[in-house]
Amino acid sequence: MTISELKNTAKQYKNAGDFDKSMELYEELWAQEQNEWNGYFLAQVYRKSNNFQKARDLHNQLAQRYPNFKPLKTDRLWLDYSEKIKDWDNSNLVSDAKDILSNTNQYDQYEGNIYIKTVLSTVRYLCYKNDHSDAYEWLLKLDQSRITNTGFLYGEQWYPADRKVYFIRLADVLIILGKYVDYINESFEKLNFSPTKTRQFKSHLIDSITYDDYISRVKLARYIKNFQEEFELREKKNFKKIYNPNKTISVSNLSQYLFCPVSFAINETYEIDANDTWEKDEWLGNRRNYSDRHRLFNQNQEYQKAFDDTDILVSDELKNDFGHLFKSKILVDNVSKHLLQLFTDSHKSIVGAPDYILENSNGNKIVLTEKFSSIHSADSQTPFDSDLVKHFAYLEKFDQTNLDFGYFITWYWELIDIETNTGRVKKKIKITSYRLVKVERNNSNSNKLNNALNRVKSIKSSKSMLIDADKISYANKCFNCSVFSYCNHKTGKYDQINLPYELTDLNKVQRTESKKYDNEIDDDDDLPF
Ligand code: SF4
Fold it and tell me: Hey, which of 489, 491, 497, 503 would you mutate to test ligand 1's pocket, going by the most ligand atoms within 8 Å of its Cβ?
């Protein structure tokens, strides 16, 4: 093989995970051409094939010859991690982990991951040794914003994102140490909640994580993640302002306003990222939208195929609900297509991008929107006006689309237990039911639309609005609100909304000593690792 063939083939074997074969070829390459990159790759495959001594000997040589070659330093740290931290028989594991951290920068693009993995592995080891106090101190070494939210596949197995591992481990340790109530108290204090709102929100939070004889670490982890993300947002002010007083009103503005006027003001002022949740990890299979079900039905002419990822029964009622929609043609799809199709009214005074526009066999144009909700959410019985107002606007204002009527679908999901091939039980999200509501043009809907439009116009022009500080926030609503982290008004302390919306600072709070609580922790069944 030529040098170039050796390089390519060795790399292919390495990428395919065949480290023994790759190692043979890199050894041959190293014999023919010695330079920093060839040395680096050979040391890397020695490490990946668990030939730690060979990797270390080579690293010692390479460090002399190429002292300033950064990839070698990074690989050597990975070698320390693989050899010393993954080996739980290593009696010096904790001090070796400290050594790695002292040579690693968690903010460095290459070394950051070594730092994170070293902390998480050490914490796991300390928990195994029942040393939860030290595990807690180790968890505090990590800056949560540096931890990736992407899970990964290794071999055949799916591993949860480090971010999820971190927060669940933190919740677990706080529960075991009896510190979780202190943590919650401090968080509300830091966020400046009034005493009344602290009582209401705390009681809701504790109720939602408490079962008869245990505290759910997964549910607590979600709250901790939200608290920490808000602390970071308010401390580092890493938001993006988009406020433009002359911006055209959008259909989403009406929906935000009816949901909560504060939510409207926040969305007007900041670019809000789609909530970075762990959902990707938790869906059983891929999340299917209406357009996926439409496609599956039309490929097979079978309702069963369109709903085979759900627990929904294919009944006459379902066929009656979806038959005419599935047989309609999709004219506009703003859900699965990347390029949004926007529409306006004839005066260009309101803009919107409906999820779908369909045309049925009678030539009727139908506007359809869909939403995914927990079965336990507040709108499980009746749809909110904040959802329906979008249809009212499309039907009444967007004349050029010639819409006849609309449908609003809510897909309800539940967390179900599934058993993995290792026999463990994991929680997964599955669609278990749906609600389909027909929306028509009528006087009552028209009044609701005009009312919402006038109120949005009014706050946009006056740039302020008085509200009742106590009544604007409710734990059940706020904890499910997509702009919770940006909201000052959940605290119950402000009776005016201003545009643009400015974020308040955090309170300075001292860490308190923990009290011991008696709740037992649950078994491993909701721990994904
Ligand atoms: S967190 Fe509560 S008060 Fe704040 S915007 Fe959301 S719903 Fe409104």
Answer: 489
